[in-house]
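STRUCTURE REQUEST FORM
Protein name: Probable membrane transporter protein
Source organism: Halovibrio variabilis
Requested output: structure tokens
Priority: standard
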Amino acid sequence: MDIIWWLAYIALGGFVGLMAGLLGIGGGGIMVPILTSLFVLQGVPHEHLAHLALGTAMAAIIPASIASLLSHHRHGAVRWDIVRFITPGILAGTFLATFIAAQIPTRGLAIFFACFMLLMSLQMLANIKPKPNRGLPRPIGVSGVGLGIGGISALVAIGGGSLTVPFLTWCNIKLPRAIGTSAAVGLPIAVAGALGYIINGWSIQGLPSAALGYVYLPAFLLMAPFSILTAPIGAKLAHRLPVKLLKRVFAFMLMGLALQMVYTVFTA
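Status: completed
Returned output:
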């Protein structure tokens, strides 16, 4: 692999970590569209573009999820009782959704990804937050919610924060606890998603030689450590920069990346 690709993956990992630390937003929305474009340039067959991007992004989220989980746990911000109840549904939903994704053509996955990111961007721009007006459902209900969160997360390669945090705040969980608990939930999402994409891509022909199923190892190994290194820098900048303005800019950037991904897979 040429040095230019090494530098591209390092830069992408660093940027994703910076945005995660600065805005508290996971990297799937950034990684998947850019990885798709990079894979096109590297000659990955069209039918594998979205699957390889999703699987690689899910794997790259794992180290960052561990770091985030430990940080929130040290601050006592994780509701481990909720994590215990929601995790079975999260694992099942995420893992099973990778089998569904494997059956969807690249263009279909790109359209679903773009629609979800556009909705998330509009929510960020409107700053819509659910009002806390109910309690948590019973454990089986929490696990059922986890099934849905995991399923959607696997199809768009996110750690679930954009879904878990609103659900928990709606259920009267204070925002710091909701964010900390969501960070803990992000780990099983990332692990189950990466494992599912590895299994589904295991015997697929035409993938790059350095791919482990639908996880492209060079991208994963280069992005993950640099995203962890830059996340604390972003967290420090969050106290000095106009975060509200940056979130709006980031929302428009997500829209652009989502549309770029659709354009890429329809013209590649």
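Reviewer notes: DSSP finds ten helices and two strands in the chain. Residues 49-74 form the longest helix (26 residues).
Form closed.
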